[in-house]
Amino acid sequence: MQDWSKDPELRVQHLTMRFGGLTAIGDLSFDAGRKQITALIGPNGAGKTTVFNCITGFYKPTEGMINLRHADGTEFMLERMDDYIITQKAKVARTFQNIRLFSGMTLLENLMVAQHNMLMKASSYTIGGIFGSGKFKRAENEALERCKYWLNKVNLMDRADDPAGDLPYGAQRRLEIARAMCTGPRLLCLDEPAAGLNPRESDELNKLLLSIRDDHNMAILLIEHDMSVVMGISDHIVVLDYGRKIADGTPAQIKVDPAVIRAYLGVEEDEDPGENIVVAAAPAKVAKVSVPRVVVQKRVAKKPVVKKGGRK
Ligand SMILES: Nc1ncnc2c1ncn2[C@@H]1O[C@H](COP(=O)(O)OP(=O)(O)OP(=O)(O)O)[C@@H](O)[C@H]1O
Ligand SMILES: [Mg+2]
User: Fold this and answer.
1) Are 110 and 221 contained in the same domain?
2) Ligand 2 centre from 186 Cα, in Å?
3) Which atom of ligand 1 is closest in space to residue 243's alpha carbon?
4) What is the pTM assigned to this prediction?
5) Atom in ligand 1 nearest the alpha carbon of residue 50
6) Ligand with the closest atom to the CA of 304
7) pLDDT tens readout for residues 134-156
8) Which of 138, 171, 204 lies at the terminal end of a domain, its last residue?
9) What is the band of 78 on the pLDDT scale with cuts at 50, 70, 90?
10) Long-range pairs for 192-195: beta carbons < 8 A, 24 or more residues apart
11) Closest Cα to atom 25, ligand 1: which residue?
12) Is the residue at 288 inside a domain?
């Protein structure tokens, strides 16, 4: 049995999501290990974001089961739960493919709003609870401490009072991760966190995600086209194509899997065997991945593999 299947945080079984005649996900099963980074990769339209939308309750799956099990043994059948309960009780947090911050609010405000549920609970949902009890004050102080911790962690403390919309793109992505972490999740789902980042920012993102996994014992589910991130930090990779799983394994296994190379990483025509391959991807992205004998080519509008240079 693979490492990630021994005591998985998340178990997806026979997940199917149809939109009318289109099967966006077809009979997908995979496990995401506790304290592991599991990457979900595949060409555009493969169904990756749809998987996140099913896990987080935004879509109700047509068929299948999504089981989340916390380390203390508490289990949740996510496919039966509403999205806000999934956030509050099952403790699943996510970031979005297109950044969704409150751009007119400061960084600190964005992180405080994310903790609104915990604060309301501490107030017993009454005005008396807010003004009258030490419990609310304590919860508010803890929430502020959490903000401080995550602002430091994502290197944004000096921008705490600036509007989120004023941040450069890469910093907004980090703030989204900080906001998700402020909710105290057990499973963190990141939808293309490296999109638009330059190589230095990607590198920082790698370090941040490894630290979240190791220092906070988190299970991370990562959708990403940037192979320097995927291959660099994933413990386990699941590859989708047209909504179906075509491979599931360690980065080393996935890199050389013929089905993955055919569907996603590209087709052979290498004249420099054994070398790292530099791949032209989308215009802003150039990818570098160690796939001997394979030149990675863009199959669809968006690109698998990423960067060497990129935006500075
Ligand atoms: N609400 C919806 N209604 C109809 N079709 C949808 C809906 N959501 C997703 N789809 C379709 O499901 C398929 C999978 O989409 P999805 O966004 O999950 O792909 P993806 O792997 O995340 O792609 P990308 O890498 O471009 O983000 C696509 O064909 C998409 O058009
Ligand atoms: Mg997507």
Assistant:
1) no
2) 22
3) 14
4) 0.85
5) 18
6) 1
7) 888 888 999 999 999 999 999 99
8) 171
9) very high
10) 192/97, 192/223, 192/224, 192/225, 193/95, 193/222, 193/224, 193/229, 194/224, 194/225, 194/226, 194/229, 194/306, 195/97, 195/225, 195/226
11) 44
12) no
